[in-house]
Amino acid sequence: MSAIQFFQWLTQALYVLISLVAVSTAVRRPTRVHLDIALFFGVITLIIAQGWVFKAFDIPIDRATTILTSSLLMALPYMLLRLVNDFTTVPARILRTAEVGLILCVLSIVVFSPILPLWLTLFLVCYFFVVNAYVAFAFLWAAQRASGVTHRRMQAVAFGSGFFGVSILLLGLGSVEPEGIRSLFSLIQQLTSLASGLSYFIGFAPPALLRRAWQEPELRAFLARAARLPRLPDTASIVRELERGAVEALGAPSASIGLWDEACGTLIYSSPNGPVAYGPGIMIGGRAFTTQEAVFSTNAIHDDPEYAQLYRSRGAVAILAAPITAGEKRLGVLSVFAPRAPIFAEEDLRLVQLLADQGAVILESRALIDEAARVRAREEATRLKDDFLSAAAHDLKTPLTALIASAQLLERRALRRPEAPPDLVTIRRIVGESIRLRGIVVELLDAAQTEQGQLLGRREPTDLAAIAREVAARHTSERHQIVVEGTEPLVGNYDAPRIMQLLDNLVENAVKYSPAGGDVTLRLWVAAEMAHLTVTDHGIGIPPADLPRLFDRFHRAGNVNDRNFAGMGLGLYICRGIVEEHGGRLTVSSNLGAGSTFEITLPHETRGDTAKDKGVVDERVDQQQRR
Ligand code: ADP
């Protein structure tokens, strides 16, 4: 057996084998695409079998046989074109042109058989080659737009068509090429036709093993990402990643996950226009959810006509759907869509189920993480409540003790010497401690209101500069000079008493935490439509480690304690609440041992800046000051 004969035999055997696989698939699942594949390879096998039979029994090839085999051969490119149409779209005019070409080919074969003139042979070869080249190009184009396994399959078919066209071109040229290189032509022709057979085989009917090998890289990449998916910021991001993983692993254009909402009894899908809810048994995905079985539909519109419009709008012809279930707990459903039926194969059902199971593990881990966070938050809330109670009790106890002691002293004196003049010192101490007590109670109440975000009352045009001046005057002492820089009115819509409280608190802190004295500066300015106000001192400063938590409830820096600086650690928490409820920001910068700067940034509305408004504002501020 010569090399050419060997390759010829191998190619023919391969085509017969593919035909058997294709026909058995078409019998099992008689879809249009399976029938088209079976027809294409069946025709090739018919031509091969006819050759074998005629050779084996030495039957002379008559005119009718020549017409039949030549016509069948010429029909192959058209059949391939139909296959392209099964996988992607072929414009109708190209299909029609190919049909006209095929009719012309068959007619001329009928007219001129058994001996075809050279020009006709060349025309037939050209027709064959051009249609095949188009098929190769169309599959390559579709491969470019597909991913994963679909990308590879389309590439294989494109190569198959390219080789097939070249092989027929060489076969046609065999009748005109010089005698000397005929055997070389023949060998190349056999090799290209073997290559086309192989490419078609792996493209049209990839064995499960090869399919899995193609899917593996995407699957591996997905599994590698899977471990960190439960830590994504929210469930929506996890769902998006799971959908992406399914799309890549299956080489499909889109996928969607419906999450089961126990309370509403619906599956919630995300869409560009927001979440959409469907009942559990609705659509192919819903069926997979209710039956808890993976479903493969090669024609969703046919299988579920009620939702045809929806499938059409999603470009979903074939659908693979698998329930996402963790043990007994139904979490949702994963559906993967393809615009053409042959993109998916029966075995892909297992892969979709695998991805859905992986999704269940990820979503379940996420639910556990969320639950753990909720438990932690509850514990934290309880701890804060405890902290709050003990801090409140502790801070209330000191002035109360002093108050009781002073009152008891007055009582004893009054009993012993009723005629004695009133003990003014003790009475003043009682008043002082009562005021302190009220201050603590107010601070505790404010902290509770801050927690609920309900600190602010009515907002009205308020001059920050005027308030700053008033606060400065109140806190200035011999040890501490409070300087205000920028005395231009700075009017905005604020809750004036709360702004006063805010500045009072910051300046009070600046003074309290500057035991050695020193200037405290208040600076005001406007930039980028925001009012800025800083309070700078040259006091003890704040350790860098405390800065991130300085505005937390009850947080006191490491360089202060109850013995040297009394306080509850609620003032800054309330200050931040006041600023943030105004839509602003409160920040701090500090150098330990050198001082601190607190910066308030508030939205600044220029509405109140007119002279008339200023008049009103000044009057209001005056009223506030008088109060
Ligand atoms: P309190 O002063 O009652 O402790 P605050 O909430 O007003 O509570 O302040 C929280 C903590 O921030 C203080 O305990 C102190 O450690 C630190 N702090 C606040 N202002 C200053 C400042 N101007 N200089 C240094 N430390 C400060």
Explain what the structure shows.
With 627 residues, the protein is of the alpha+beta class. It has a six-stranded antiparallel β-sheet, sandwiched between helices. Helix 6 runs antiparallel to helix 7. The chain is elongated and about 150 Å long. The C terminus is likely disordered. It binds adenosine-5'-diphosphate. Adenosine-5'-diphosphate (ADP) binds next to helix 16 and helix 17. The site of adenosine-5'-diphosphate has 20 residues, from helix 16 and helix 17.
In short:
This protein is 61% helix and 13% strand. The protein has 18 helices and 13 strands.
Attribute tags:
five-stranded mixed β-sheet; binds adenosine-5'-diphosphate; disordered C terminus; 18 helices; alpha+beta; 61% helix; 627 residues; six-stranded antiparallel β-sheet
Report the major sheet. Answer: 6 strands, antiparallel
- Please tell me what the overall shape is: elongated
Quick one: how many beta strands?
13
Taking all Cα atoms into account, the compactness measure Rg is 43 Å
Low-confidence stretches: 608-627
Residue share in helix: 55-70%
Order of strands side by side in the largest beta sheet? 3-2-1-6-5-4
Ends distance:
117 Å
Helix segment tally? 18
Task: Give the overall pLDDT as a whole number.
Answer: 87
Strand content: 5-15%
Which small compounds were modeled alongside the protein? Answer: adenosine-5'-diphosphate
Structural class: alpha+beta
